[in-house]
Amino acid sequence: MTFDHRREGSVALAIGVLAAILAAASPSYFSSENLIDVLLANLPVAVVALGASVVMIAGEIDISVGSVFAIAAVAAGLVAKSQLPGGVWTATLAACAVGSLAGVCSGALVAHWKVPSIVVTLAMMIALRDALRWATGGAWVQNLPEGFQWFGVPQERYPLIAVGVLVLLGASAAWGLRYLAAGRMVYATGSNSSAARLSGIDVAAVKLGVFTLAGALTGVAAALNAVRFNQVPSNGGLGLEMKVIAAVVVGGVSTTGGRGTIGGVLLGVVLLGAIGPALTFLGASAYWERAIQGAIILAAVAVDATRGRAEARKAISPPSIRAEAHA
Question: Which domains does the chain have, with CATH numbers?
Answer without folding.
Answer: 5-309 (1.10.3470)
